[in-house]
Amino acid sequence: MANVPDIRAASISISETSLVVELQDGRTLIVPLSWFPDLVAADVEQLADHRLIGDGLGIHWETLGVDLSVSGLLFDSPPPSDPKERRRVTYHVVPAGGDDWHLKRQGEKNFTSFETKEEAVKAGVREARTHEAGQLIIHTRDGRFEEERTYGYDPPGRPG
């Protein structure tokens, strides 16, 4: 993402109503949990199964298949309250066993396998572009956050 400051999380905690992110620069970011239906629907164990990725650039919930970027939490507008409004559809390029790569739509268990990361990224770009608000998150071989690409509608007020 162009022109987005390097904002990193130091730690996170989750209450019944909020996602609280302690930033490495000392600020605290509190975001309503209601912005993230997958997190609202999760049980306590699933919510606890999170880790920081990309040295604090993002947060990953393994059992939920959810990734959030810290800069997105800070700069994105809240999701629209009208369900007919635009919803971001997120795809992930993640390492598979051996040299293969998977393209997976967030929140789904199915995936498509590719022999190279380049093939998976190209397919992810094609898929993300088919949505009014598409997002592709690319991970490194060790599963860490590497890059985020967005297509179509981007929430107002977000630099880049």
Protein architecture, described:
With 160 residues, the chain is an alpha+beta fold. It folds into two domains: 9-75, Uncharacterised protein PF10387, DUF2442 (NE0471 N-terminal domain-like, 2-Layer Sandwich), CATH 3.30.2020.40; 89-152. 17% of the residues lie in helices and 38% in strands. The protein is built from four helices and eleven strands, in the order βββααβββαβββαββ. It has helices at 37-40, 44-48, 70-75, 117-128; strands at residues 9-14, 18-23, 28-32, 50-53, 58-61, 66-69, 89-95, 101-105, 111-114, 133-139, 145-152. The strands form three sheets. A five-stranded mixed β-sheet has the order 9-8-7-10-11, with helices on one face. Strand 4 (50-53) and strand 5 form a beta hairpin. The protein starts with 8 loop residues before the first strand and ends in an 8-residue tail after the last strand. The model has no long low-confidence stretch (mean pLDDT 83).
Features:
alpha+beta; five-stranded mixed β-sheet; 160 residues; three-stranded antiparallel β-sheet; single chain; 2 domains; NE0471 N-terminal domain-like
